[in-house]
Amino acid sequence: MFVSSLVHGVLFMLQVPVSLGSWEEWWTYDGISGPNYWGLLNPEWSLCNIGNRQSPVDIDPSKLLFDPHLRPLQVGKKRINGIITNTGHGIVFKANSTAKAEAVYIKSGPLSYEYRVDEVHVHFGSSENFGSEHTVAGQTFPAEVQILGFNSDLYKNISEAVTKSQGIVGMALLIQVGEETNFQLRLLISQLNEVLYKGQQAILKSLSVQELLPDTHFYTTYEGSLTMPGCHETVTWLVMNKPLYITRQQLYALRQLMQGEQENPKAPLVNNFRPTQAMHRRLLRTNIDFNRRKSLQCPTMYKNMFYQANPGLQ
Ligand SMILES: *[C@@H]1O[C@H](CO)[C@@H](O)[C@H](O)[C@H]1NC(C)=O
Ligand SMILES: *[C@@H]1O[C@H](CO)[C@@H](O)[C@H](O)[C@H]1NC(C)=O
């Protein structure tokens, strides 16, 4: 789908991001077009209701399974340019389609292919008590940043990959309130006043995906889905084991964004998260070796709190 839009006084023909294809736009995060009904709104979205490998999920520490074969993740160092859009469902950064050499790739970890970073989504709540999609031990976070890449070894673009096996990787960065913010997170949300209304866009330059990541090589991984329609079960998720921090002022700025166009702003664009989904028989694998690290300071989402791996699973 193409729209023309006025970005910084220049008229561009842009590809609308995210929608990850030309999905129709009338799904929401509440009411009769909310998450409980996504699968009924459109036959192509039926997995949203009947799928058994859906996302997000709760990262239950007692279910974590240490997998010694999980390698460290590798994330490219390049800085990327792109466009930030208020989609009416969220705030999405879409990387410019640039030469292959300019793109950022995610590989290794649990991945068998290289994934090209294509979109960054931001989910957030109307209060600090919720906002994230993934949860840890049942606890929600005020926000979550998701970095989505597509399998560029096998597929041409994200819209093709999203329906295909091993198509997508999603990195979930949970966000806590803190005094200081990661510089790249600040950059990512630096232009919110340019995208207050649905359809508005702003150029964003020089985003470093690598420096956006929290300072940890520990993660939990599982096989899941897109967290919005059509809920395709093609996503390998990586939930990083340390949060990023956001200030109260930045959360406040996010809550000023609106779901509708300028002429009809509708409601604030908050609480754009899907509730957690059942694990069914999936595994939550981690590269944290709890046994070996017992005497060490164990990495954790909360200061002075430890994940407990279930010894029976190890
Ligand atoms: C790519 O990013 C640059 C910013 O450096 C911007 O000027 C340009 O318009 C973008 N191209 C597209 C196709 O969005
Ligand atoms: C993505 O790739 C497919 C297959 O090559 C192609 O048909 C489609 O037009 C591409 N979509 C976009 C949005 O570039």
From TrEMBL:
Pfam families: Carb_anhydrase. InterPro entries: CA_dom, CA_dom_sf, Carbonic_anhydrase_a-class. Residues 1-21 form the signal peptide. The keyword Lipid metabolism does not apply. The keyword Zinc does not apply. Keywords: Signal. Residues 25-288 form the Alpha-carbonic anhydrase domain. Belongs to the alpha-carbonic anhydrase family. This is Carbonic anhydrase-related protein 10-like. The gene is LOC106457417.
